[in-house]
Amino acid sequence: MDEPLVWQGRLTARRRLMREAWSCAGGGLLWLTLFLVLPSLLVGGMAFAGRDPYGQVVWDFTLENFRRLAGFGALGWSPAYFYILVRSLWLALVVTLFSVGLAYPLAFFMAGLGPRRRALALALVAIPLCTNLIIRTYAWELLLSPQLPPARLAAWLGLIAPGEALYPGALGVYLGMISYSLPFAVLPLYTNVERLNWSQVEAARDLYAPGWQVFARVILPQTLPGLSAAVVLTFVPTLGIFAIADRLGGATFMLVGNAIQQQFSASRDYPFGAALSLVLILLTLAGLLLYRRHQRETALL
Amino acid sequence: MWQRLGLSRTEVDPLAAWRAVAPATGPFLGVEGLGKAFGPVQALDQVSLEIPRGVFAALLGPSGCGKTTLLRILAGLETPDTGRVLLDGRPLHTLPAHQRPVNTVFQSYALFPHLSVFENIAFGLRARGLPEDQLRERVADGLALVHLEEQSARLPHQLSGGQKQRVALARALVNEPLLLLLDEPLSALDARLRAEMQLELRQLQQRLGTTFLLVTHDQAEAMSVADLLFVMEEGRIAQSGAPAEVYEKPRTRFVAQFLGSANLIEARRNGQAQGVDTALGPLTLRQPPPWEAGTLAIRPERIEVCNQAPGLNGIAATVSDWVYRGDHCEVMVEPGSLRLRTAPSPHLARGQSLWLHLPPQHLEALHG
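Predict the joint structure of the above. Result:
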């Protein structure tokens, strides 16, 4: 017999409550299970599987994929994948730094605009989000092509040979990546900055704080939530994205995203691709955990 | 930190720097010909005033009269279009807000939500580079001053309205400013707490001897705390003086009506030296009015009810309505729709006849 109980001012029973909870959360849980939990388990399992010469997955347990990842290949030791991973992490870090660094003053500028101009500025930031990433990447190819002023200027300065484009290479990837992640940095920062209480800035000035102290002791601590959202929203996607590097990076500038994509297409090496993915997921998680611990130390709101 | 940079105390601390110079002669705070316009609105129009040291002054006026603008100019949060501000005889209006020896209690408190009560109160001291041990001592004193020792580690959102108010007060006062500005500090509190805080503010001011300048639209609040009252109307000072003086002898119609309630009587000179004709009949004033035709004011509590016709300024009236208020009765009479106060009496009735006496010493001839 189910015990009657009062919950949130309502007479009900435990079994009934559980049924209601499942009917509310069930859809979401099912979705997560089907499209997040099961694929992750599949990736985790496949990372320890092998493959036959024709690319078929062989379901045994082996650490071969991780040995290759660490550089022990058929041709002796080479740190190629290690380089790719480090390069990807470095790129994600730099792109995050630039995106957030550009977005932070932009957010203050936008929050200071009048209502109509502010709506326009928000639309300008959001429009790229509605445009296909591939189209945006092609746009960069066009912009960096040899006939246009940027490339001509670089050639005139002797940075590249005349008639060459500014891509493929690191520059193209950085430009593409930063322009891609900028809206993701601007939007959370803008919502944060817009809600800042400016009377606290006046209070700080009244309490003898010169400009830099007003920023460091009042504004910065209160924009940390927006900053951390911006950091996460740029760092994580930048680490995994491959389309931009594929178009603008060329063969010499491979990122871990491209490496994974290659395993699942051209190389037909699903287990190795899964191992790379697993390492990437673990690295991302470790980064986020570190970041959250640091956040808790700085004692946010 | 500043010692390590080879800086001296007065180079880091604006308050110490200010105090290092002996005050010049002249009033403690002098405001001269201050003007400020926001677009087409003239918020302040040639405002001049003086406040002596150690006084509790109040700026009183309806919303939009410019009192907050004046306060913000004193704090350095607004720049005046014209005029100047002198403190200790030295120009204050040329200093940026963070270098003025002035602190403010803001209407919304403006506490820092990410800092504890302790750190909120310590904010100004840290900015001024006070050594840590002195800082702890001063903050502890500040906490004790407003009875918040127990709440020291809390964050602002964990405090009640009255407690936030006290933190804002302590945060300003720990700096020991020369002048404390209070911008409607009690308006967010409920009536009982407000009355309590008024008393506490008054006692605090007397104990510390700091000059306070309170901005308020609440005439009862201004009168109960202040030694010196400035009534503002449309960007100008309408009248200033001790609260009792301003209340008893209002100079203008605006002051008479804004400060308490007043009966206004239209009058015209009638040939006799101190005599005027009014709708109530001829009245005698204590001195000749400054106009040919103008307005008289008399406070409800100054109108006397008599059993028989008084010799001078007597009026036969009938009760048109009355309200029992417990400690007194408010009575409306005709002619003239006069309001007056009587002792609480259950014997009043509509239509009842009364003799009223309007004492000449309480009949004020208004200037405008």
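The longest helix of chain A spans residues 14-46.
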